[in-house]
Structure formats: structure tokens, C-alpha cells
Amino acid sequence: MLLDYNNIGDEGVKYLSNAIGINSPTLVELSYNNIGEKGAKYLSKALQINTSILELHLDGNKIGNEGAKYLAIALQINSCLQVLKLPYNNIGTEGAKHLSEALVKNSSLVDLNLQGNKIKNEGMKYISEALQINNSLQI
């Protein structure tokens, strides 16, 4: 499912998440769609029940720390997602901490892209500690 550059925002993701929860796409591309923390919350709920999505691309949205927290909750439950792309989403240290906590428990994710965020040194420390425990994520 390729929906990049459609400016669907949080409201559009709400409708899409309902469909994702019951359908079986393996790839969902939602890059550059003005998706914020509410949209991340909808996606998180869908990921908690969907067992077919292998890749989720969310490049260039506005997920932020709170949205990263919602996605981290899904990562702790979902055991099929292999690729999560979150570049340029204004994720900072707090978001990196949430994602790191999920990485400790998740064993399906092999590719996590956090390029162009605001993770800084402290956030990198959290991620580094999680990578010492997580054996599935490829560096």
C-alpha cells in the first residue's frame, strides 16, 4: 500500500488504520503525509492486531516523542514487523528512550531508520544499550 505524499494527516490515518487492522498489506508507505502523534496512536493500535505488515515507512512526518511512545507500545506486542522507517520525524531523546525499551522486547525488527531526528547523545545511549540486548536488529 503506497500512499506517500498525500497529506492525509491524522484523520486520514484514523480511517486507514481501521482497514489495516482487518486487511493484510505487507508494506505500508505513509511518508510525507503530515502525520502527528494522534496518527501514530492510530497506527500503533492497528499494528497491535495486524500480523501481516512487514514494513512501515513513515519518513518526514511529525511523529515526535509522543508518537514514538505509541509506536514503541506496538513494537512490544507486534511480532511480524521487520522494517520501521522513521527518518525526519522530530523524535528526540525521550522518543529514543521509548523505542529503546521496545527494542529490548522486540525480536522481529531487523531495520530501524531514525535518520535526521533529534536523538542526541543521551538518546543514542538508550539505543546503544538496547542494541546490546536485541540480537535481531541489523546495524
Automatic annotation (TrEMBL):
It comes from the Eukaryota. The keyword Repeat applies. The keyword Nucleus does not apply. Keywords: Repeat. This is Uncharacterized protein.
